[in-house]
Each structure stands twice: as C-alpha cells, then as structure tokens.
Design brief:
CATH topology of the largest domain: Rossmann fold
Structural class: alpha/beta
Radius of gyration: 22 Å
Helix content: 40-55%
Largest sheet: 6 strands, mixed
Number of domains: 2
Number of helices: 9
Strand content: 15-25%
CATH superfamily of the largest domain: P-loop containing nucleotide triphosphate hydrolases
CATH class of the largest domain: Alpha Beta
Order of helices and strands: EEEHEEHEHHHEHEEEHHH
Length: 292
Amino acid sequence: MAIIELQDVSKLYGFGDATTLALDEVNLTINEGEFVAVMGPSGCGKSTLMNVIGLLDRPTHGSYSLRGHAVERLKPGRRAKIRRDTIGFVFQFFNLLPRLTVMENVALPLAYKGIGTRRRMKQALNMLERVGLNGREFFYPHHLSGGQAQCVAIARALVNHPSIIIADEPTGNLDSNASRLVMELLSEIHKTGNTILFVTHNPELTRYATRVVYMHDGGIVHDEQTALGDIAPTARKVMYTIPVTTEEDDLAGVSTLMKSVPGGDKPSDKTSAKKTVKRANKTKAKRARSKK
C-alpha cells in the first residue's frame, strides 16, 4: 500500500533571474514498510525532497498524497498536526537542547502534544530503554558521545509513535562505529513496521535499505530495489570508481603546496613532507583494517 505519492512535484526558490530549481517534476511512490535510501551529489535536491515529504516545506507545483490524502495545500495548523503525529525527524546535527536532560529532550514532542509530565516522562524512559540508553536519562547532551546523542535524537523522533521516520544524513557527523550503531538501530525500528527514508552519501549504508533512489539536478535519475545486507549495485559502481591516490601522488601534492610557501623548497621540507605522507598512509591503513 502506498503511503507517500508525489506527482510532478517541483520546488523553486527565489524570483526572476535568481530562481533556483531545487526539485524538477519529481514522481515518487513509497509503500508502507519500505526502507529507502536517497543518494546523490551535494545540492541535487535530497534535503529539499525530505522537507517536502516531511511537510516542512510546500511544493511549488505538483501534488503530494500522504496516506491517500492530498496534503500539499493544507493550512499550517493542520500540516503541523499531521507532521507531529505521523512523521519523526532525525537530523545530522542531533538538534538536542543543551539545557535539557536526555529524558527531557526525548519527552519534548509529548509536551507539545499536551501530555502530562508524569506520563510523558514514563514514555520517554521507555523509549530510551528501546534505543539502549537506559541509565543515561539524567545526562545532558554534552555528556554523550556522537553515537549516543544521535540515538537520543532517534528516541525523540519515535516517542510519538510515528509511522514514517525521515533521517537526513543521520550518520554524516559520526565515525564508522557510531554510524553502524545508528544504522543498526534504524534497522531494528524498520523491522517493527515503520517506513524509513534516509539521506546518505555513503554507499556502504545502502546495505540497510530495501530500495535506493538516486537524485541529480533536482530529479530522480534511478530507482532500484536492493537486498538487505548488500550494497546497492549502482552505489557499488560509484564506490569503486573513486580514484585511488598513490604515495607519489600525495608527495607531489604536498611538494606543490610547500613550494608556495617562501623557503619551502628545501631538502628538509621534502623529508618532512614524506614523513607527513607516511603518517597519513598509516592512518588510512588503520581505518581500512577497522572497516573489515
């Protein structure tokens, strides 16, 4: 059953010669229970698409049907209610309030809903247990690691029991271990029946998706189903066409940079450059081993 349907959706910003076409007649149908990854270069319209689907923005042209109801022209109050009850958001930079505890941050959407303090704290605590952060409820955001902070953001997104989760670069600000933690958590949430859309630049993360949508210049250029656990075929091609630099390439780059500095073209500087490159290569090797 289709939960999201976009037909010829376009989004324009600005006026006259300064007009920018962020979305260009996008057609997209997402069925209930799908785990959809959205990929594409920076500036291709991924975040704009998420904002339109999440009712944070309106399309300039086209129609948007959410659970069979047209929502593109609803009044702000009605849009806010549907957004609150249907959609949960996870952002790259967590957006936790620094002066609130972890439990208070998670309970915040329930406060906007008018739920009493006792009940909303109980629901927030239950949600923190679900994401594996019981025992951290009275911590403040600055006490948490990046992965833990993102798990708190996911708990906050889930506390209203939304049917759709929209995650815009949820791992973009995390290291590989924290990224794995967050994606495993989203995978577990997906298994309970939630529809999940997430934006990523990382082909590796398509392993968690059941479908991958590729965008370019405001439009969808490719759409493919993928098996859980496998990197999507098109994403794999992108992954393995990234040029690999050699130590000589690195040395040439460092040497060029040092020549631009007065007195930089000295034997001692070249030796220092070589040491710098060797240290960088050792770091790359360690990262490669940690990913295996």
